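Backbone-to-sequence.
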């Protein structure tokens, strides 16, 4: 930086000397030497001034309280596609994303969420900022803990305990079968880390359905578009869009195919998860 300041100072002295020289008309072109002097200063001096200006290189300071809130946002809306570590599953790796790396407090991620199809485009500004803190934190952790030759070993559980949980307390067998939809699952998903990811956060293959029954009128069923404490909207089988303000007299029933997976996320112990992954890994 001192060299830069010294160089700019030298240029300034040079420019001052040029300007102090007397001007002589140039009859052939109708221009004066003064014009050329000023043009020379502009060409020589301006690039260094521009180069000296600060650019968008300052790193975002990660707020750990925002990281916790951002992790909740990420888990609810992003984890199924981008993975538990944001390194990609069915969607791109966000750790290596140029957009994420350029982002400062949501100035890139916010517009991208609104622009890209299939993304949660109506997050509030505070939610987007919290999400950026979580992603920046993941980037920092990845940069500090690079271990490409030895991925984590997730096959530390007990096969029999995993089978017992699958058929018992976890009630997995009420929807899945080791000889049906899960037959050969470890052959299709060869990486145990990916297998664990898919088991914890399965892909959504069926839409969430909702049935809304007004106090007066017939019930309407369709694919859930949006629901919160105040409003609900859906699109019926004919493609027509319906929306309501939620009131005590409005009956709402939601059928989410992944509801049981979401419920179990709050109940799994580390042992449960490792046992189940170890059992699934035997289904070749």
């Amino acid at each position: 930086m001192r060299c830069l300041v010294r160089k700019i100072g030298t240029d300034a002295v040079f420019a001052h000397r040029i300007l102090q020289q007397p001007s002589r008309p140039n009859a052939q072109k109708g221009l004066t030497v003064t014009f050329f002097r000023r043009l020379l200063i502009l060409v020589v001096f301006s690039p260094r001034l521009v180069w000296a200006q600060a650019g968008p290189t300052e790193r975002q300071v990660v707020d750990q309280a925002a990281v916790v809130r951002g992790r909740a946002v990420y888990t609810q809306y992003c984890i199924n596609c981008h993975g538990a570590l944001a390194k990609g599953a069915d969607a791109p790796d966000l750790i290596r994303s140029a957009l994420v790396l350029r982002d400062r407090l949501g100035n890139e991620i916010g517009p991208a969420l609104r622009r890209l199809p299939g993304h949660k485009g109506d997050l509030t500004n505070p939610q987007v900022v919290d999400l950026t803190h979580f992603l920046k934190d993941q980037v920092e952790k990845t940069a500090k803990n690079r271990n490409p030759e030895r991925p984590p070993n997730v096959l530390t559980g007990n096969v029999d305990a995993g089978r017992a949980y699958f058929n018992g307390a976890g009630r997995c067998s009420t929807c899945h079968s080791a000889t049906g939809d899960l037959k050969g699952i470890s052959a299709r998903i060869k990486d145990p880390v990916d297998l664990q990811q898919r088991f914890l956060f399965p892909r959504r293959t069926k839409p969430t359905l909702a049935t809304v029954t007004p106090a007066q009128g017939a019930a309407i069923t369709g694919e859930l578009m949006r629901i919160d404490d105040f409003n609900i909207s859906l699109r019926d089988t004919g493609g027509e869009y319906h929306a309501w303000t939620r009131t005590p007299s409005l009956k709402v029933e939601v059928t989410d195919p992944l509801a049981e997976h979401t419920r179990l996320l709050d109940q799994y112990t580390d042992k449960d998860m490792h046992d189940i992954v170890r059992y699934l890994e035997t289904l070749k």
